[in-house]
Prior knowledge:
CATH superfamily of the largest domain: NADH-ubiquinone/plastoquinone oxidoreductase chain 6, subunit NuoJ
Largest sheet: none
CATH topology of the largest domain: Four Helix Bundle (Hemerythrin (Met), subunit A)
Order of helices and strands: HHHHHHH
Shape: globular
Oligomer: single chain
CATH architecture of the largest domain: Up-down Bundle
Amino acid sequence: MSLSLAVFYLLGVVCLGGAVGVVMSRNVVHAALLLLVSLMAVAGLYLLLLAEFLALVQVLIYGGAITIVVLFVIMLTRVQEFRAMRANPQWPLAIVTALGVFVLLAWAIINGAPNETARHSVAFRELGDSLFTKWAVPFEVASLVLLVALIGAIVIARERDAE
Length: 163
């Protein structure tokens, strides 16, 4: 077994463990931290695939910004409202759906042809030129949409506090 395969298996176990921990955790702060663990393992998988830019984006945007936004949302919501909630009665449907997706993915992995092309890394300069020339406007639109969503969440939370 090669070193890269061993690291792949280790990162896969960490990623899946973090994901299962997010779903199984009763504490939402612990779930957010386990989400961060899972996202960092995905960044490691990107590094194994020689996708350094995606790993950097995964760490900065998902690992940093999104996790912080999730923690802010947890802090802005009132926990008293959620204590009265019971388990969702649709859990049998969720289990059937999850098993169906698992079977579909397992079938695709088993029957899919392996990709035998050599891996190569894309230069940061080429990627940066493409992002800031060809894709600059969609990038800025996405950032504005996220900013408006964050402001909307703060306004909604403030209105509840005023009541």
